[in-house]
Amino acid sequence: MLLYLSLIGIFLSVILISYNAGKFKSTLYLGVFFFLISLFGLNQYALLDSKSVLLVSIFCTNFAFLHYLIGPVLYWYIRSVLTDNSRLKKTDLFHLIPSMIYLIASLPFIFSSYAYKVQIATEIVKDAAFLGSHKFTLLSEILPIYIVYLSRPVHLFIYTLWSIGLFICYLIQKGNRKVFTQQNFMNKWLSVFLLFQTILISTYLISTFKTFIQSSDVFFTLNFLQFLSGAGLIGLLISPFFFPGILYGLPHIPEPNSKVNEEEKPDSLSVESKKSAPNFEAEYILAIQKKADSCMQEFQTFLQPELNLNRFSDIIQLPAHHLAYYFREVKQQSFNDYCNECRVEYAKSLMVEGKTGELTLEAVGILSGFTNRSTFFRAFKKVEDVSPGSFLAKMTQDSAPV
């Protein structure tokens, strides 16, 4: 079963990375996490269950250094979700040190001859306990073998506790919540995700401790700890299928008894929100709409010619990919078209005020936030179905005395 679970995990990681990592960077960490966990599962299957000399010779020690990356990737995922910032810092390079140390210590075995690896694999297939006596890395020449084996689960256990601590601190700091506004769905996902991760690493740590410290065979035989560890792995791998919204990082639409009063919603939102995917809470979508519209109306941010989605995100303090989803799926228009609509309305107000008596139409467009004459005329005709000149002529004709 471990083999099939690991293959499912690799399949899941490919889905996460291929379809969403380009838009939502946090899913890149989650995809890499599932890939590393699945690779770890394949490693365990090859060494303990496969009884295949070929598989053991391939997996034994060669990929062990990647086990020290599971913890950092888990931490980066939790941090990126809670802060809505997936960028790595220079200090994050320190998280790679344990993996690099183990890789360097493993190089003599990794570059040893295939015949030697087959010999070692044959011994492991005959008796899995051979793993606890042979010195596979240079670290085993310096430290006791049980310390080397324990370092892996201890390392991941520390990162798991660290990630849980980040999540708990975030929940406590209710006044500072920005990313999780109305995101009870994300709270549930992270709670389930960290729960299964804790079960998995705790049982693996106990099994390793009993095997190498207490000289037990618990690591090599089917028992309750392995059953519990398998349950943790199954929970980890299938949980994303019950929380598909994690691909977006946004909240679910609430049940029909939502607190949002449908009569109080603008008509545009009532119609458009029905078109959005069922992964978002109506209250949160409404909050995005109100904040975006009020910022444009009160501060006239559309007058900035270089205004783009990322800059607008910084101004109104909302995640850029949340805004991207809102404009793409709810407004069903690009952010640039949204800005141009506001600019055209402003240009019309200048015409009504009579500014064209002292300014050219091109100057009116520049004052409205357009970068040049052609973009102004093109956007105006797209919004009003007439050119600025025709609109001005009709307005002048309508206002002329009879």
Descriptive overview:
This protein is mainly α and 402 residues long. The protein folds into two domains: 2-247; 286-399, Homeodomain-like (Arc Repressor Mutant, subunit A, Orthogonal Bundle). The chain is built from 18 helices and no strands. The protein has helices spanning 2-20, 26-49, 53-59, 70-83, 97-110, 114-126, 139-142, 145-172, 184-212, 224-242, 267-273, 282-299, 309-316, 320-331, 335-352, 361-367, 373-384, 388-399. The relative contact order is 0.07.
Key features?
402 residues; mainly alpha; 66% helix; elongated
Largest sheet: none
- Give the CA-CA distance, first to last residue: 88 Å
Fraction in beta strands? under 5%
- Can you tell me the overall shape? elongated
Structural class based on helices, strands and sheet pairing: mainly alpha
Average of pLDDT: 81
Helix/strand order, N-terminal first: HHHHHHHHHHHHHHHHHH
Domain unit count: 2
Global Rg? 29 Å
DSSP summary, beta strand count: 0
Q: How many helices does DSSP assign?
A: 18
Low-confidence stretches: 178-182, 249-279
